[in-house]
Amino acid sequence: MTIKSLFLLCFLTVLNITNITSQEIHITPRPQKLIIKSGVFKINNETQIVFNDSSKKIVKDLQNYFSKEFNITTKLTEYQNLKNNFLVFQIDESFTDEAYDLTISDNNIIICANSKKGWFYGLQTLKQLCSFNAYYSKYEKYIEVKNLKIEDKPSFKWRAFMLDEARYFKGMEQVKMLLDEMAYLKMNVFHWHLVDDQGWRIEIKKYPKLTEIGSKRKSTQIGPLQWESPIQSAEPHEGFYTQEQIKEIIKYAADRHISIVPEIEMPGHSTAAIASYSWLGTSKKEIEVPIKFGVGKDVYDVTNPRVYQFLTDVLDEVMALFPSKVIHIGGDEVKYNHWKASTSVLKYMNEKKLKTPADLQVYFTNSISKYLQSKGRRMMGWNEIMGHNLHHYQDKKDTETSQKLAKETIIHFWKGDVNLATTAASNGYEIVNSLHSYTYLDYKYKNLPLSKAYSFNPIPKDLDKKYHNKIIGLGCQMWGEWIPTNGNMHYQTFPRIAAYAEIGWTNIDRKDFKYFKYSLKNLQKRWTHKEIYFASDEFVEKNK
Fold first, then answer.
1. Residue ranges of domains in the chain, CATH in brackets
2. pTM (2 decimals)?
Protein backbone atom coordinates (compact mmCIF):
# COMPACT_ATOMS: atom_id res chain seq x y z
CA MET A 1 0.00 0.00 0.00
CA THR A 2 1.39 3.42 -0.97
CA ILE A 3 1.85 6.21 1.56
CA LYS A 4 -0.80 8.18 -0.32
CA SER A 5 -3.30 5.30 -0.06
CA LEU A 6 -2.51 4.78 3.60
CA PHE A 7 -3.04 8.46 4.29
CA LEU A 8 -6.38 8.36 2.44
CA LEU A 9 -7.48 5.30 4.43
CA CYS A 10 -6.52 6.96 7.72
CA PHE A 11 -8.35 10.13 6.68
CA LEU A 12 -11.52 8.22 5.80
CA THR A 13 -11.32 6.28 9.07
CA VAL A 14 -11.02 9.49 11.08
CA LEU A 15 -13.84 11.04 9.05
CA ASN A 16 -16.04 8.02 9.70
CA ILE A 17 -15.32 8.15 13.45
CA THR A 18 -16.12 11.86 13.42
CA ASN A 19 -19.42 11.21 11.66
CA ILE A 20 -20.35 8.48 14.13
CA THR A 21 -19.49 10.73 17.06
CA SER A 22 -21.41 13.64 15.60
CA GLN A 23 -24.45 11.40 15.31
CA GLU A 24 -24.46 10.55 19.01
CA ILE A 25 -27.23 11.81 21.24
CA HIS A 26 -26.36 12.42 24.88
CA ILE A 27 -29.23 12.14 27.37
CA THR A 28 -28.97 11.59 31.15
CA PRO A 29 -30.10 9.10 32.26
CA ARG A 30 -29.25 7.18 29.10
CA PRO A 31 -32.37 5.85 27.33
CA GLN A 32 -32.83 2.09 27.05
CA LYS A 33 -33.14 2.17 23.25
CA LEU A 34 -32.28 5.01 20.88
CA ILE A 35 -32.23 4.78 17.08
CA ILE A 36 -31.13 7.80 15.06
CA LYS A 37 -32.75 8.14 11.64
CA SER A 38 -32.12 10.36 8.64
CA GLY A 39 -33.70 13.79 8.46
CA VAL A 40 -34.69 16.45 10.97
CA PHE A 41 -37.79 18.04 12.44
CA LYS A 42 -37.90 21.83 12.61
CA ILE A 43 -39.60 23.55 15.57
CA ASN A 44 -40.55 27.16 14.86
CA ASN A 45 -43.28 29.74 15.42
CA GLU A 46 -45.58 27.78 13.11
CA THR A 47 -45.25 24.54 15.07
CA GLN A 48 -48.50 23.46 16.73
CA ILE A 49 -48.76 21.51 19.98
CA VAL A 50 -51.89 19.36 20.11
CA PHE A 51 -53.68 19.15 23.45
CA ASN A 52 -56.78 17.80 25.10
CA ASP A 53 -58.05 17.96 28.69
CA SER A 54 -55.52 15.32 29.83
CA SER A 55 -52.46 16.87 28.22
CA LYS A 56 -53.27 20.56 28.67
CA LYS A 57 -50.90 21.05 31.63
CA ILE A 58 -47.87 19.32 30.13
CA VAL A 59 -48.45 21.04 26.78
CA LYS A 60 -48.37 24.41 28.52
CA ASP A 61 -45.09 23.40 30.18
CA LEU A 62 -43.61 22.56 26.77
CA GLN A 63 -44.85 25.79 25.22
CA ASN A 64 -43.33 27.81 28.08
CA TYR A 65 -40.04 25.95 27.63
CA PHE A 66 -39.79 26.89 23.94
CA SER A 67 -40.68 30.48 24.75
CA LYS A 68 -38.28 30.91 27.66
CA GLU A 69 -35.29 29.01 26.29
CA PHE A 70 -35.52 29.78 22.57
CA ASN A 71 -37.92 32.72 22.17
CA ILE A 72 -40.08 30.52 19.95
CA THR A 73 -43.84 31.00 20.26
CA THR A 74 -45.45 27.69 19.39
CA LYS A 75 -49.19 27.47 18.79
CA LEU A 76 -51.69 25.38 20.73
CA THR A 77 -54.50 23.47 19.06
CA GLU A 78 -57.18 20.94 19.97
CA TYR A 79 -57.38 19.70 16.37
CA GLN A 80 -56.21 16.09 16.36
CA ASN A 81 -55.73 15.42 12.62
CA LEU A 82 -52.83 17.66 11.66
CA LYS A 83 -50.58 16.46 8.86
CA ASN A 84 -47.24 18.12 9.64
CA ASN A 85 -45.26 20.44 11.92
CA PHE A 86 -46.89 19.41 15.20
CA LEU A 87 -46.14 17.81 18.56
CA VAL A 88 -48.60 15.54 20.33
CA PHE A 89 -48.88 13.48 23.54
CA GLN A 90 -50.65 10.15 23.11
CA ILE A 91 -51.92 7.45 25.48
CA ASP A 92 -51.18 3.75 25.03
CA GLU A 93 -52.43 1.65 27.93
CA SER A 94 -50.15 -1.25 26.98
CA PHE A 95 -47.12 0.69 28.24
CA THR A 96 -45.75 -0.06 31.71
CA ASP A 97 -45.82 2.60 34.41
CA GLU A 98 -43.30 5.43 33.78
CA ALA A 99 -42.38 4.09 30.32
CA TYR A 100 -42.57 6.30 27.23
CA ASP A 101 -41.77 6.33 23.53
CA LEU A 102 -40.46 9.45 21.82
CA THR A 103 -40.62 9.53 18.02
CA ILE A 104 -39.28 12.40 15.93
CA SER A 105 -39.93 12.35 12.17
CA ASP A 106 -39.95 14.88 9.34
CA ASN A 107 -43.52 15.89 10.14
CA ASN A 108 -44.04 15.58 13.88
CA ILE A 109 -42.92 14.68 17.39
CA ILE A 110 -44.98 12.08 19.25
CA ILE A 111 -44.59 11.24 22.95
CA CYS A 112 -46.52 8.12 23.88
CA ALA A 113 -47.09 6.67 27.40
CA ASN A 114 -49.82 5.14 29.52
CA SER A 115 -50.08 8.14 31.87
CA LYS A 116 -49.05 11.72 32.53
CA LYS A 117 -46.01 10.39 34.38
CA GLY A 118 -44.65 8.72 31.25
CA TRP A 119 -45.42 11.86 29.26
CA PHE A 120 -43.46 13.88 31.81
CA TYR A 121 -40.36 11.71 31.47
CA GLY A 122 -40.63 11.85 27.69
CA LEU A 123 -40.78 15.64 27.98
CA GLN A 124 -37.57 15.72 30.03
CA THR A 125 -35.85 13.76 27.25
CA LEU A 126 -37.22 16.13 24.61
CA LYS A 127 -35.93 19.10 26.59
CA GLN A 128 -32.44 17.59 26.73
CA LEU A 129 -32.60 16.91 23.00
CA CYS A 130 -33.58 20.48 22.18
CA SER A 131 -31.22 22.17 24.64
CA PHE A 132 -28.09 20.11 24.04
CA ASN A 133 -28.52 17.83 21.01
CA ALA A 134 -30.04 20.10 18.37
CA TYR A 135 -29.23 23.01 16.08
CA TYR A 136 -30.73 26.34 17.12
CA SER A 137 -30.91 29.40 14.87
CA LYS A 138 -31.27 32.39 17.16
CA TYR A 139 -32.01 34.84 14.36
CA GLU A 140 -34.35 32.71 12.27
CA LYS A 141 -35.94 31.30 15.45
CA TYR A 142 -36.05 27.60 14.83
CA ILE A 143 -34.67 24.38 16.37
CA GLU A 144 -33.65 21.40 14.25
CA VAL A 145 -33.79 18.06 16.08
CA LYS A 146 -32.68 14.80 14.52
CA ASN A 147 -35.25 12.24 13.57
CA LEU A 148 -35.08 9.36 16.01
CA LYS A 149 -36.94 6.73 17.96
CA ILE A 150 -36.53 6.33 21.73
CA GLU A 151 -38.11 3.49 23.70
CA ASP A 152 -37.49 4.03 27.38
CA LYS A 153 -38.49 2.91 30.85
CA PRO A 154 -36.83 2.75 34.30
CA SER A 155 -34.89 -0.22 35.66
CA PHE A 156 -36.01 0.45 39.25
CA LYS A 157 -39.22 1.92 40.60
CA TRP A 158 -37.52 3.63 43.60
CA ARG A 159 -35.02 6.32 42.53
CA ALA A 160 -34.43 8.48 45.55
CA PHE A 161 -32.46 11.45 46.78
CA MET A 162 -32.37 12.14 50.53
CA LEU A 163 -31.84 15.56 52.09
CA ASP A 164 -30.97 15.82 55.78
CA GLU A 165 -32.25 19.16 57.07
CA ALA A 166 -32.20 18.22 60.74
CA ARG A 167 -28.50 19.10 60.98
CA TYR A 168 -28.64 22.23 58.79
CA PHE A 169 -31.90 23.82 57.68
CA LYS A 170 -31.75 24.68 53.97
CA GLY A 171 -35.17 26.16 53.27
CA MET A 172 -37.81 26.04 50.56
CA GLU A 173 -35.80 27.61 47.73
CA GLN A 174 -33.08 24.98 47.93
CA VAL A 175 -35.57 22.13 48.25
CA LYS A 176 -37.41 23.29 45.13
CA MET A 177 -34.10 23.53 43.27
CA LEU A 178 -33.32 19.93 44.21
CA LEU A 179 -36.78 18.79 43.13
CA ASP A 180 -36.29 20.49 39.76
CA GLU A 181 -32.99 18.68 39.19
CA MET A 182 -34.40 15.36 40.36
CA ALA A 183 -37.30 15.69 37.91
CA TYR A 184 -34.95 16.56 35.05
CA LEU A 185 -33.03 13.37 35.84
CA LYS A 186 -36.20 11.26 36.18
CA MET A 187 -35.77 10.58 39.91
CA ASN A 188 -39.08 9.99 41.67
CA VAL A 189 -38.61 9.88 45.48
CA PHE A 190 -37.52 12.78 47.68
CA HIS A 191 -36.60 11.27 51.05
CA TRP A 192 -36.88 14.12 53.55
CA HIS A 193 -34.93 13.68 56.80
CA LEU A 194 -36.80 16.23 58.91
CA VAL A 195 -35.94 15.32 62.50
CA ASP A 196 -32.83 14.16 64.34
CA ASP A 197 -30.82 14.84 67.47
CA GLN A 198 -29.68 18.28 66.34
CA GLY A 199 -32.97 19.67 65.09
CA TRP A 200 -36.72 19.21 64.59
CA ARG A 201 -37.82 20.85 61.31
CA ILE A 202 -41.55 20.17 60.89
CA GLU A 203 -44.39 21.98 62.66
CA ILE A 204 -46.56 19.67 64.78
CA LYS A 205 -49.52 21.68 66.02
CA LYS A 206 -50.34 19.42 68.98
CA TYR A 207 -46.76 19.74 70.30
CA PRO A 208 -45.59 23.33 69.62
CA LYS A 209 -42.41 23.02 71.70
CA LEU A 210 -40.96 20.69 69.07
CA THR A 211 -40.30 23.76 66.96
CA GLU A 212 -40.21 26.40 69.71
CA ILE A 213 -37.33 24.51 71.36
CA GLY A 214 -36.35 21.57 69.18
CA SER A 215 -35.71 23.55 65.99
CA LYS A 216 -32.98 25.68 67.63
CA ARG A 217 -29.48 25.03 68.91
CA LYS A 218 -27.06 27.45 70.52
CA SER A 219 -24.00 26.52 68.49
CA THR A 220 -22.69 23.87 66.10
CA GLN A 221 -19.63 21.64 66.01
CA ILE A 222 -17.36 22.61 63.11
CA GLY A 223 -13.77 22.11 62.03
CA PRO A 224 -11.50 20.00 59.85
CA LEU A 225 -11.37 17.14 62.37
CA GLN A 226 -15.13 16.72 62.00
CA TRP A 227 -16.38 14.18 64.57
CA GLU A 228 -13.42 14.77 66.90
CA SER A 229 -13.38 18.53 66.45
CA PRO A 230 -13.43 20.65 69.65
CA ILE A 231 -14.34 23.77 67.65
CA GLN A 232 -17.76 25.40 67.97
CA SER A 233 -19.34 27.98 65.67
CA ALA A 234 -20.60 30.04 68.65
CA GLU A 235 -23.54 30.98 66.42
CA PRO A 236 -27.12 29.79 66.87
CA HIS A 237 -28.79 27.76 64.13
CA GLU A 238 -32.52 27.35 63.68
CA GLY A 239 -35.31 26.81 61.19
CA PHE A 240 -38.40 24.72 60.49
CA TYR A 241 -41.19 24.33 57.97
CA THR A 242 -44.74 25.34 58.80
CA GLN A 243 -47.41 22.91 57.71
CA GLU A 244 -48.47 25.36 54.98
CA GLN A 245 -44.92 25.42 53.63
CA ILE A 246 -44.83 21.62 53.71
CA LYS A 247 -48.03 21.52 51.65
CA GLU A 248 -46.53 23.90 49.08
CA ILE A 249 -43.43 21.75 48.69
CA ILE A 250 -45.48 18.54 48.43
CA LYS A 251 -47.53 20.07 45.60
CA TYR A 252 -44.37 21.32 43.89
CA ALA A 253 -42.97 17.77 44.02
CA ALA A 254 -46.22 16.16 42.88
CA ASP A 255 -46.30 18.44 39.82
CA ARG A 256 -42.93 16.87 38.94
CA HIS A 257 -44.14 13.32 39.68
CA ILE A 258 -41.96 13.07 42.78
CA SER A 259 -43.25 11.43 45.95
CA ILE A 260 -41.95 12.90 49.20
CA VAL A 261 -41.24 10.28 51.88
CA PRO A 262 -40.89 11.94 55.30
CA GLU A 263 -38.54 10.43 57.87
CA ILE A 264 -39.57 10.80 61.51
CA GLU A 265 -36.81 9.13 63.55
CA MET A 266 -37.75 6.72 66.34
CA PRO A 267 -36.77 5.43 68.84
CA GLY A 268 -33.24 6.88 68.51
CA HIS A 269 -31.92 10.15 67.10
CA SER A 270 -34.62 11.78 69.21
CA THR A 271 -32.70 14.27 71.38
CA ALA A 272 -34.28 17.39 69.84
CA ALA A 273 -37.75 16.06 70.71
CA ILE A 274 -36.65 15.04 74.23
CA ALA A 275 -35.12 18.50 74.73
CA SER A 276 -38.58 19.87 73.94
CA TYR A 277 -40.49 17.47 76.22
CA SER A 278 -38.24 15.74 78.76
CA TRP A 279 -40.87 13.10 79.62
CA LEU A 280 -40.30 11.55 76.19
CA GLY A 281 -36.84 10.32 77.17
CA THR A 282 -35.89 7.20 79.03
CA SER A 283 -33.91 9.10 81.67
CA LYS A 284 -36.58 11.85 82.09
CA LYS A 285 -33.75 14.39 82.50
CA GLU A 286 -33.87 17.94 81.19
CA ILE A 287 -31.46 18.23 78.23
CA GLU A 288 -30.69 20.72 75.47
CA VAL A 289 -30.61 20.31 71.72
CA PRO A 290 -27.06 19.01 71.10
CA ILE A 291 -24.39 21.31 69.72
CA LYS A 292 -22.19 18.33 68.77
CA PHE A 293 -22.88 15.70 66.16
CA GLY A 294 -23.00 11.96 66.67
CA VAL A 295 -25.54 9.70 68.38
CA GLY A 296 -27.75 11.50 70.92
CA LYS A 297 -27.78 11.43 74.70
CA ASP A 298 -31.16 9.76 75.18
CA VAL A 299 -33.82 7.75 73.32
CA TYR A 300 -37.59 7.57 73.50
CA ASP A 301 -39.01 5.50 76.35
CA VAL A 302 -41.07 3.25 74.09
CA THR A 303 -42.52 1.40 77.09
CA ASN A 304 -44.39 4.53 78.24
CA PRO A 305 -47.96 4.71 76.82
CA ARG A 306 -47.74 8.52 76.88
CA VAL A 307 -44.66 8.41 74.63
CA TYR A 308 -46.37 6.00 72.24
CA GLN A 309 -49.35 8.37 72.12
CA PHE A 310 -47.00 11.25 71.30
CA LEU A 311 -45.45 9.31 68.42
CA THR A 312 -48.80 8.32 66.92
CA ASP A 313 -50.04 11.91 67.31
CA VAL A 314 -47.00 13.13 65.40
CA LEU A 315 -47.50 10.48 62.73
CA ASP A 316 -51.17 11.49 62.39
CA GLU A 317 -50.18 15.08 61.57
CA VAL A 318 -47.42 13.87 59.25
CA MET A 319 -49.83 11.57 57.39
CA ALA A 320 -52.39 14.36 57.12
CA LEU A 321 -49.76 16.36 55.22
CA PHE A 322 -47.91 13.74 53.17
CA PRO A 323 -49.84 11.58 50.67
CA SER A 324 -46.91 9.13 50.40
CA LYS A 325 -47.92 5.53 51.05
CA VAL A 326 -44.50 5.04 52.69
CA ILE A 327 -43.48 6.61 56.00
CA HIS A 328 -39.82 6.28 57.05
CA ILE A 329 -39.29 5.82 60.80
CA GLY A 330 -35.47 5.72 60.84
CA GLY A 331 -34.71 3.20 63.56
CA ASP A 332 -30.92 3.38 63.22
CA GLU A 333 -28.16 3.79 65.78
CA VAL A 334 -30.25 3.23 68.91
CA LYS A 335 -27.98 3.13 71.95
CA TYR A 336 -29.48 0.41 74.13
CA ASN A 337 -27.66 1.45 77.32
CA HIS A 338 -30.49 3.95 78.04
CA TRP A 339 -33.05 1.15 78.15
CA LYS A 340 -30.74 -1.22 80.00
CA ALA A 341 -30.29 1.36 82.76
CA SER A 342 -34.04 1.89 83.24
CA THR A 343 -35.87 -0.15 85.89
CA SER A 344 -39.26 0.53 84.30
CA VAL A 345 -38.05 -0.51 80.84
CA LEU A 346 -36.56 -3.74 82.18
CA LYS A 347 -39.81 -4.47 84.01
CA TYR A 348 -41.78 -3.92 80.80
CA MET A 349 -39.45 -6.20 78.87
CA ASN A 350 -39.89 -8.92 81.47
CA GLU A 351 -43.68 -8.60 81.31
CA LYS A 352 -43.66 -8.86 77.51
CA LYS A 353 -41.09 -11.66 77.55
CA LEU A 354 -38.61 -9.58 75.55
CA LYS A 355 -35.13 -10.91 76.29
CA THR A 356 -32.95 -8.27 74.62
CA PRO A 357 -33.09 -4.55 73.76
CA ALA A 358 -33.25 -5.59 70.09
CA ASP A 359 -36.38 -7.59 70.94
CA LEU A 360 -37.86 -4.42 72.44
CA GLN A 361 -36.99 -2.31 69.40
CA VAL A 362 -38.50 -4.79 66.93
CA TYR A 363 -41.58 -5.19 69.17
CA PHE A 364 -42.02 -1.40 69.27
CA THR A 365 -41.33 -1.03 65.56
CA ASN A 366 -43.95 -3.63 64.72
CA SER A 367 -46.52 -1.73 66.76
CA ILE A 368 -45.74 1.39 64.70
CA SER A 369 -46.00 -0.66 61.52
CA LYS A 370 -49.40 -1.94 62.58
CA TYR A 371 -50.54 1.61 63.33
CA LEU A 372 -49.36 2.88 59.95
CA GLN A 373 -51.07 -0.02 58.20
CA SER A 374 -54.33 0.86 59.94
CA LYS A 375 -54.04 4.25 58.24
CA GLY A 376 -53.31 2.75 54.81
CA ARG A 377 -49.57 3.44 54.98
CA ARG A 378 -46.43 1.35 54.98
CA MET A 379 -43.36 1.53 57.22
CA MET A 380 -39.78 1.91 56.05
CA GLY A 381 -36.63 1.96 58.18
CA TRP A 382 -32.86 1.58 58.16
CA ASN A 383 -31.73 -2.01 58.39
CA GLU A 384 -31.07 -1.93 62.16
CA ILE A 385 -34.84 -2.35 62.57
CA MET A 386 -34.32 -6.03 61.75
CA GLY A 387 -32.09 -6.38 64.81
CA HIS A 388 -28.83 -6.25 62.86
CA ASN A 389 -25.66 -5.69 64.87
CA LEU A 390 -23.92 -2.93 62.89
CA HIS A 391 -22.08 -0.87 65.50
CA HIS A 392 -19.03 -1.32 67.69
CA TYR A 393 -20.76 0.31 70.66
CA GLN A 394 -23.46 -2.36 70.79
CA ASP A 395 -23.02 -5.51 72.83
CA LYS A 396 -23.55 -8.40 70.42
CA LYS A 397 -25.89 -10.12 72.90
CA ASP A 398 -28.11 -7.02 72.99
CA THR A 399 -28.75 -7.24 69.24
CA GLU A 400 -29.91 -10.85 69.21
CA THR A 401 -33.64 -11.07 68.60
CA SER A 402 -36.32 -13.70 68.17
CA GLN A 403 -38.87 -11.07 67.09
CA LYS A 404 -39.89 -11.08 63.43
CA LEU A 405 -40.16 -7.71 61.74
CA ALA A 406 -43.50 -6.99 60.04
CA LYS A 407 -43.36 -8.38 56.50
CA GLU A 408 -44.81 -5.22 54.97
CA THR A 409 -41.73 -3.23 56.02
CA ILE A 410 -39.39 -1.78 53.41
CA ILE A 411 -35.81 -2.30 54.53
CA HIS A 412 -33.49 0.63 53.83
CA PHE A 413 -30.12 -1.10 53.67
CA TRP A 414 -27.20 1.19 54.46
CA LYS A 415 -24.59 -0.72 56.42
CA GLY A 416 -23.30 -4.19 57.17
CA ASP A 417 -22.38 -7.31 55.28
CA VAL A 418 -24.18 -7.62 51.96
CA ASN A 419 -25.36 -11.02 53.20
CA LEU A 420 -27.72 -9.11 55.50
CA ALA A 421 -29.44 -7.61 52.45
CA THR A 422 -29.52 -11.01 50.79
CA THR A 423 -31.12 -12.56 53.89
CA ALA A 424 -33.76 -9.82 54.02
CA ALA A 425 -34.62 -10.25 50.33
CA SER A 426 -34.80 -14.02 50.60
CA ASN A 427 -37.15 -13.61 53.58
CA GLY A 428 -39.54 -11.63 51.44
CA TYR A 429 -38.71 -8.03 52.40
CA GLU A 430 -38.53 -5.32 49.77
CA ILE A 431 -35.25 -3.42 49.92
CA VAL A 432 -33.99 -0.01 48.93
CA ASN A 433 -30.22 -0.36 48.69
CA SER A 434 -28.27 2.66 49.95
CA LEU A 435 -24.99 1.05 50.91
CA HIS A 436 -23.11 3.92 52.54
CA SER A 437 -19.73 3.34 50.89
CA TYR A 438 -21.35 3.91 47.47
CA THR A 439 -24.23 6.33 48.11
CA TYR A 440 -23.39 8.78 50.93
CA LEU A 441 -22.99 12.20 49.39
CA ASP A 442 -21.32 13.70 52.46
CA TYR A 443 -18.30 11.47 51.74
CA LYS A 444 -15.35 13.23 50.15
CA TYR A 445 -14.69 12.67 46.46
CA LYS A 446 -11.37 10.98 47.26
CA ASN A 447 -13.36 8.28 49.11
CA LEU A 448 -16.35 8.21 46.79
CA PRO A 449 -15.26 9.45 43.36
CA LEU A 450 -17.79 9.82 40.57
CA SER A 451 -16.63 6.59 38.91
CA LYS A 452 -17.26 4.61 42.10
CA ALA A 453 -20.68 6.18 42.55
CA TYR A 454 -21.54 5.28 38.94
CA SER A 455 -20.37 1.69 39.42
CA PHE A 456 -22.91 0.96 42.18
CA ASN A 457 -25.33 -1.88 41.49
CA PRO A 458 -28.33 -1.95 43.87
CA ILE A 459 -28.68 -5.70 43.32
CA PRO A 460 -26.10 -7.53 45.46
CA LYS A 461 -23.68 -9.54 43.36
CA ASP A 462 -24.51 -12.95 44.82
CA LEU A 463 -28.26 -12.48 45.23
CA ASP A 464 -30.22 -15.31 43.66
CA LYS A 465 -32.07 -14.09 40.56
CA LYS A 466 -35.39 -15.16 42.00
CA TYR A 467 -35.00 -12.41 44.64
CA HIS A 468 -33.89 -9.62 42.31
CA ASN A 469 -37.40 -8.18 42.22
CA LYS A 470 -37.13 -7.56 45.97
CA ILE A 471 -34.56 -4.84 45.33
CA ILE A 472 -36.93 -2.03 44.38
CA GLY A 473 -34.26 0.62 43.91
CA LEU A 474 -31.70 2.85 45.50
CA GLY A 475 -31.28 6.07 47.41
CA CYS A 476 -28.42 8.54 47.61
CA GLN A 477 -28.09 10.41 50.90
CA MET A 478 -27.05 14.03 51.48
CA TRP A 479 -26.30 13.84 55.20
CA GLY A 480 -25.84 17.32 56.61
CA GLU A 481 -23.51 17.26 59.63
CA TRP A 482 -20.57 18.85 57.81
CA ILE A 483 -22.56 20.62 55.08
CA PRO A 484 -23.32 24.04 56.62
CA THR A 485 -23.94 26.06 53.42
CA ASN A 486 -25.92 25.68 50.25
CA GLY A 487 -22.67 25.75 48.29
CA ASN A 488 -21.30 22.84 50.34
CA MET A 489 -24.45 20.89 49.53
CA HIS A 490 -24.22 21.69 45.80
CA TYR A 491 -20.58 20.61 45.65
CA GLN A 492 -21.20 17.27 47.38
CA THR A 493 -24.39 16.49 45.45
CA PHE A 494 -23.54 17.57 41.92
CA PRO A 495 -22.49 15.78 39.74
CA ARG A 496 -22.86 12.53 41.72
CA ILE A 497 -26.67 12.80 41.77
CA ALA A 498 -26.62 12.30 37.98
CA ALA A 499 -24.75 9.01 38.41
CA TYR A 500 -27.38 7.73 40.84
CA ALA A 501 -30.16 8.86 38.51
CA GLU A 502 -28.65 6.78 35.70
CA ILE A 503 -28.19 3.77 38.00
CA GLY A 504 -31.87 3.92 38.89
CA TRP A 505 -33.12 4.37 35.35
CA THR A 506 -30.75 2.74 32.85
CA ASN A 507 -30.29 -1.01 32.43
CA ILE A 508 -26.85 -2.14 33.55
CA ASP A 509 -25.95 -3.37 30.06
CA ARG A 510 -26.64 0.15 28.72
CA LYS A 511 -24.46 1.91 31.26
CA ASP A 512 -21.17 3.33 29.97
CA PHE A 513 -19.06 5.65 32.11
CA LYS A 514 -17.42 7.33 29.10
CA TYR A 515 -20.81 8.06 27.56
CA PHE A 516 -22.06 9.29 30.93
CA LYS A 517 -19.07 11.63 31.36
CA TYR A 518 -19.65 13.11 27.92
CA SER A 519 -23.37 13.58 28.63
CA LEU A 520 -22.44 15.24 31.91
CA LYS A 521 -21.10 18.22 29.98
CA ASN A 522 -24.67 19.07 29.04
CA LEU A 523 -25.80 18.96 32.65
CA GLN A 524 -22.85 21.13 33.71
CA LYS A 525 -24.03 23.80 31.28
CA ARG A 526 -27.48 23.65 32.85
CA TRP A 527 -26.11 23.80 36.39
CA THR A 528 -23.83 26.72 35.56
CA HIS A 529 -26.81 28.62 34.16
CA LYS A 530 -28.82 27.86 37.30
CA GLU A 531 -25.95 28.82 39.64
CA ILE A 532 -25.60 25.33 41.05
CA TYR A 533 -22.01 25.11 42.27
CA PHE A 534 -21.05 21.59 41.19
CA ALA A 535 -17.69 19.91 41.69
CA SER A 536 -15.61 20.34 38.54
CA ASP A 537 -14.02 17.43 36.65
CA GLU A 538 -10.65 17.79 38.35
CA PHE A 539 -12.19 17.04 41.76
CA VAL A 540 -14.73 14.30 41.08
CA GLU A 541 -12.17 11.53 40.67
CA LYS A 542 -9.88 10.24 43.39
CA ASN A 543 -6.98 12.59 44.10
CA LYS A 544 -3.71 10.73 44.52
1. 21-152 (3.30.379.10), 158-540 (3.20.20.80)
2. 0.94
